[in-house]
Amino acid sequence: MTTEHTAPQATAGLGDDDGTAPEFTVFGGDWSDVAEEATRLGEQRLVFNMGPQHPSTHGVLRIMLEVEGETVTECRAGIGYLHTGIEKNMEYRTWTQGVTFCTRMDYVAPMFNEAVFCMGAEKLLGITDEIPERANVLRVLMMELTRIGSHLVAIGTGGNEMGATTVMTTAFIGREETFKVIEAITGLRVNNAYIRPGGVAVDTPEGAVQMIREMIPKVRQRVDELALLQLENPIFKGRLQGVATLDLAACMALGITGPILRSAGVPYDLRKSEPYAGYETYDFAIPTSTDADAYSRVVLRLEECYESLKIVEQCADRLEQLEGAPVMVADKKIALPSQLSVGSDGQGNSFEHIRHIMSESMEALIHHFKLVTEGFPVPAGQAYAAVENPKGFLGVHVVSDGGTKPWRAHFRDPGFNNLQALSALTEGGQVADVVVAIATIDMVLGGVDR
Amino acid sequence: MSDAIDNRPADGAEIGPVSPGGRTLINVRQGMFAARGDTSGYDGLTQFVYEPTPAQRPYGGWFDEVVDVLEELLGAKAEAAIESVIVDRGELTLHIAREHLVEVCQHLRDDQDLRFEFCLGVSGVHYPAHTGRELHAVYPIQSITHNRRIRLEVSVSEGDPHIPSITSVYPANNWHERETWDFFGIIFDGHPGLARIEMPDDWVGHPQRKDYPLGGIPIEYKGAEIPSPDQRRQYR
After folding, report:
1. In this structure, are A272 and A329 located in the same domain?
2. Which residues of chain B does A377 touch, with a Cβ-Cβ cutoff of 8 Å?
3. Tell me, what's the pLDDT at B171?
4. A61 contacts in B (CB within 8 Å)?
């Protein structure tokens, strides 16, 4: 350590063209000695773990990093820390009960798990076209509200991981507004078990449409705020622009879908390419970009929030028109007979239904009992259903042996597939950009590990 | 359902799996409530549940085109490669012999009339009743260009659970094949690093096989013992 550099100092004029603008560079302390020693040793290769409990890893993700200085030379993701055997468990439960399991996979976007599983079950049952319109509108409403919530979490936690807490709090305030509507209709904020094979569990409570209409500007305001707060911020741009790029060829090779594929220029969205639940009748756009970097994906997620709000608006109109229409298939062999009604304690069985099965009709009681305990048989065979989840292509492969329980239910979670791109997104970049890359993939480990 | 389920007449003969036309025997359902529609016992309370019968041409829609192009590209190998074609619930399933799987995938991906760019992973299914072909690997394959999806199905026995890896054609299947190895014990030959992915590295067994118990421990509640979920008396 040289004596004249015992404390950090500043000096002016470095790199000035005309010498007028003051510019400073900091040196001193023992930095130069550290750097000299590093040069003498020649190699600064470190291998270390990031996670599984690192707060920026969206759950329990282990990342093994090999770094040289600040540069990542190799990156591998290790998963499985959140494996809960959901697919195996579903083989021991009825198709209706299965909804409560699969909703817990990607817990930031639970409605999509329920929807895709029910669509698979309905395909096996051959009742896809018999789902009442109001049920489909409610499904679309729930999925779009969840999409907004999921995107806000992606943007908010992504900002938080880079040190911008306000981004997170603003995003969560917006998400809270969507939760208020979801909770009012389904009774729960997440893990709702709301979408069931054949329709949805319960119709909307009184005043739901009004509530949706009041929510829309509140959420839009928060999305506006996030856009204003971030998109022109020089630090934000510096951290995200040109970082974690994945071009189209790499996307195709790695099977990437969702915002990452759309940021590479492909307007691939199952809501447009294979419309389900009546998406072909809604007016909305698929935003795309060609920048293929982390910044463009944040922009896409914000734009998708606006598009989702447009769909929610249309859902509110339709719910008004379809007031009183059924929300479950007419087939009494599939539709659960229990009529739920929201009581003073939040939720419960309707008094009329209890009176009917307990004191009026023994057959109704037997029917109720059989359907609840045994479930309904699903014709043997296999089917594949897919929805556009906020993260990408969410697919389900369901197999039935003709019984009342799935023989096999396998989910293709987009996060599981997209996380494979982590090496391609991070290698050659800085260690700090690994966090940006994780945020831009936006996987949820509950869905990755299932 | 009537098509998929054979009720074997109760002639007192020994019950064993019969496999008409090489169709997948999904399950043999036995006992009351399991043998659906028969609670009297006169039918022997046994049902053989099969996958749907192979389709006959025309398959309908674009299915014919896909199979035609694929057969043309495979040439003389087509008959051996495509074991059967099933059209069910508006979905096309091709049963592929494992030794031709990589070539089939290569054609599906590269030919401009097929252009299936994405393989959406591989889903293992265990059919213990289907003797000699217990383990199935199901590959949903998606074309963005033509907006089509088909399903490839490869079946192998538990004793020889080898399937060539298709990661050379679809690199995205890397983790999916690791998962299927982890849960079903299907060995994907040629995979760059076939390690367990969800279960711990030193785990013994393949948890999603049907003979692997769900696990869990019995729960004592108010003096009564409630068995673990897979041991409970239940409807099937």
Report:
1. yes
2. 1, 36
3. 92
4. none
Which phi and psi angles does A329 have, rounded to 5°?
A: -60, 155
Does residue A63 lie within any of the structural domains?
A: no
Give B-chain residues touching A123 at CB under 8 angstroms. 89-90
Stretch(es) of chain B classified as CATH 3.30.460.80 = 63-189
Co-location of A422 and A355 in the same domain: no
Q: Are residues A245 and A369 in the same domain?
A: no
**CATH assignment at residue A324:** 1.10.645.10
Domain that holds residue A172: 86-334+376-449
Distance CA A83, CA A61 (A): 11
Residue B139: how many CB atoms within 10 A of its CB? 28
What does the alpha-carbon distance between residue A320 and residue B61 come to, in Å, rounded to a whole number? 38
A106 SS3 class: coil
> Are residues A421 and A323 part of one domain?
yes
Number of other CB atoms surrounding residue A34 within 10 Å: 11
Contacts of A410 in chain B (CB under 8 A): 123-125, 138
Interface of B with A in 19-58 (CB under 8 A): 26-27, 29, 33-34, 36, 47, 49-52
> Tens digit of pLDDT for each residue in A391-436?
999 999 999 988 889 999 999 999 999 999 999 999 888 888 888 8
pLDDT, residue A213, reads: 92
For the stretch A302-349, pLDDT in tens is: 999 999 999 999 999 999 998 888 888 888 888 887 677 766 665 677
Of B170, B196, B235, the CB nearest to A373: B235
pLDDT digits (tens, 9 = 90+) for A122-138: 999 999 988 999 999 99
Better-scored residue on pLDDT, A335 or A386: A386
Is residue A49 one of the residues assigned to a domain? no
Of A216-225, A295-304, B21-30, B60-69, the range with the lowest mean pLDDT is B21-30
Q: Per the CB < 8 Å rule, is B172 touching A420?
A: yes
CATH architecture of B63-189: 2-Layer Sandwich (3.30)
How many domains does one find in chain A? 3
Closest chain B residue by Cα to residue A405 = B236
CA distance B61 to chain A (A): 16
In a domain, A444, yes or no: yes
Q: Is A274 on the interface with B (CB under 8 A)?
A: yes
| Structure letter (DSSP) for residue A357 | I
